[in-house]
Amino acid sequence: MNRVLARKQLRTNVCGTTKIFRRTFSTHPVSTSGSNEKSNAKTNSIEDDSPQHDIAIVGGGMVGIALAASLASKPLTKHLNVAIIDNNPLLGRKSTIEKGHPPDPRVSTVTPATISFLKGIGAWKYIEEQRHAYFDKMQVWDYTGLGYTRYNAKDVDQDILGCVVENKVLQSSQLSCVQESDLQKTIYPARLNSMNMLPSSSLTGLGEVPSTTDLFMRGRLAKLELSDGNNVYAKLVVGADGSKSRVRELAGIKTTGWNYSQNAIICTVEHTVENFTAWQRFLPNGPIALLPIGDKFSNIVWTMDPTEASDRKSMSEDDFIKAVNDALDYGYGPHPETTGSGGSSLSWLTGDVNISAKERFETPPKVVKLSSERMMFPLSLRHAKDYVSNRVALVGDSAHTVHPLAGQGVNLGFADASALSRAIAEGIALGTDIGEANLLKRYEAERKPANIAMMAVLDGIQKMYAVNFGPLNALRAAAFHGAHYISPLKKRIISYASGEQSLPLFS
Ligand SMILES: Cc1cc2nc3c(=O)[nH]c(=O)nc-3n(C[C@H](O)[C@H](O)[C@H](O)COP(=O)(O)OP(=O)(O)OC[C@H]3O[C@@H](n4cnc5c(N)ncnc54)[C@H](O)[C@@H]3O)c2cc1C
Known about the structure:
By secondary structure, this protein is an alpha+beta fold. The chain has helices at 2-24, 62-72, 112-120, 124-128, 167-179, 212-217, 246-250, 306-314, 317-327, 409-430, 437-465, 470-485, 487-497, and strands at 52-58, 81-85, 107-110, 132-135, 137-142, 148-152, 162-166, 184-188, 192-196, 222-226, 231-239, 255-270, 277-283, 286-292, 297-304, 369-370, 375-384, 388-389, 392-394, 400-401. Helix 2 (62-72) runs parallel beside helix 10 (409-430). 49% of the residues are buried. Bound molecules: flavin-adenine dinucleotide (FAD).
């Protein structure tokens, strides 16, 4: 009897695959694979021939694809039938870096914890084949000249503090893992328009293999309507569709948050020498970061008020380069006094002085050329009140959007993807319906406190540096000195920013 059922399901899988190819692959070469006869995936051809999936991931950005790749890497989830819904053209082509081309301005600083995750799902080997830049030193200072902090990977006995990678490389590397896996995957080059699901009711009275319509009517499947007119059904819908998430909106999940009255300008710049350090200086209107991205290139992330941002975006290339060099040197205020002796008045607090406490203040390498367009992004903080509801889970920016000042946004999203794939695997091991809110709540319980803690830290830093006020300036100076010299504090900051310590700095 089981064998008959298995044969029946295999037949419907094959049938479903053919339909999907005909209906949705006219513009993108999309493949499905995997031959697990036990898969629940099938298309019911009597009442509703729309494809049915275990999971529909809405949004194939870095985090959506990370979830698919994480599912593909686990024995319990690698044969699932997964739909990825996104009309982003990047999903339809393999991104390769052409030699000599400057890096794309959209990059992410990934933490050691993210690198471990990407190694675990098999994506890091593809990233290593393309452009990326490890860095082992970081310098943070502000325009008042009252102090600076240097961080060195050796402070925590590590080789690196992080790595800067182009977003398209992160995305395409994970996509390669998905494409080479056994996961039954279908990419729908469309957008989600609407979503319907009904309250759950008993399955009694249905046949051995209930139809898609029956399962939908009994609340076991969500129905998604796509912008190209197709419908798909899934047991679980994952919103990985960014800060303006349609899934979140359709699921009725509220958010809290605010817009910062700040925009970020990002671009690629070139030096005459290679940059190996991540630099960040806090200016009166927001921080400017200069991040290494390999060869003689760096990436600029410069936060400022919206009017200044529009001016900086449209000013001549020469004026922009001069403004960047000013902002990273003597513009707005003096260099901090270089102590660099390791014999600070604060060292008595620790007894041991970390390696970077002996490092002198340095001036970043000069920018000589603008190597990409300047792109501008409005900045906001947004947090979903719930990460899950019945048949829905949110990951990445759809659940939380943070200020980019510490380069943590997508790192939090990767941690979400990892946690959700683990919860799904646990559900499968227990034979639970993977769309059930009770199972999904395990994922929420793991990620919400960690994300809220990081959001609070980042928002606190943003506010602390957004004000020019005497006593607060002194406090900032004390913070620089404390972080620079107090060894245990510095170690905790590095391990928190590396994603290796999940909760507060002062536990
Ligand atoms: C200036 C700046 C610098 C940053 N630097 C860093 C950094 O250094 N390190 C770091 O960790 N983070 C950084 N971030 C944050 C990081 O970019 C985001 O956290 C990350 O892009 C979120 O990824 P995501 O996949 O969740 O969402 P997104 O990247 O927004 O992807 C969402 C996807 O969903 C698709 N989509 C949207 N709506 C629909 C729909 N209705 N139907 C189907 N598909 C849909 C979109 O096409 C898109 O492909 C930075 C952000 C900014 C603005």
